[in-house]
Amino acid sequence: MEIVVTGRHTQIKQRFRDVVESKMNRVTAIAPDAQRVQIVLSHEGNPRQADTAKTGDAIKIRFSR
């Protein structure tokens, strides 16, 4: 399974990538035919423009077959 981790307006540390990879390897038990996982971590400095009200941080996960 291909795991793609990208950051918008933020940098992704290697430790975060390692944790995501270990967690996403368990997805194969749930969705064995998933070929790609795309994870987008975003941070918006202005809370009025952010999708989330308090911190401005959001994580979106997409699976592709």
Describe the overall structure.
- By secondary structure, the chain is an alpha+beta fold.
- 23% of the residues lie in helices and 35% in strands.
- It has helices at 14-24, 27-30; strands at residues 2-8, 36-43, 57-64.
- It has a three-stranded mixed sheet with strand order 1-2-3, with helices on one face.
Helix-strand blueprint:
Layout: E1 2-8, H1 14-24, H2 27-30, E2 36-43, E3 57-64
Parallel strand pairs: 1-2
Antiparallel strand pairs: 2-3
Topology order in helix (H) and strand (E) letters: EHHEE
Helix content: 10-25%
What portion of the residues fall into strands of 2 or more residues? 35-45%
Tally of individual helices: 2
Mean pLDDT, to the nearest integer, reads: 77
Please tally the β strands and state the result: 3
Determine the N-to-C terminus distance. 10 Å
Descriptive tags:
65 residues, alpha+beta, three-stranded mixed sheet, 2 helices, 35% strand
Short description:
With 65 residues, this protein is α+β, with helices and mostly antiparallel strands.
